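Read as amino acids, tokens; as here:

___
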Amino acid sequence: MPVTFEETLRYLPYIYLFVISLIAVIFTCYDKIASKKLPDRRVPEAMLLFISLLGGSLAMYATMRAIRHKTQHAKFMIGIPVIMLLQLAGAVAVWLLM
């Protein structure tokens, strides 16, 4: 049975979240490595926060905790959970409006 366009569209948010989460993990791990070996090639903090804002907040936060990167920076340890809460509130609002 062929898959319809509507069925395909239903999975796009999950695919997007997977891809942006993967990007968040890659950028976070790269920045951890660059902090030791390539200090002039670091990922800007604004870029990390932007990736988090785009939907990679949960993956980035978990990765930062797991590899112990930027855990002393309040901007990340408070900012990313705040972004997660805002994203959750937005998702609930969209779900309720549907």
Residues 5-37 form the longest helix (33 residues). The radius of gyration is 16 Å. The mean pLDDT is 95. The chain is about 80% helix and 0% strand.
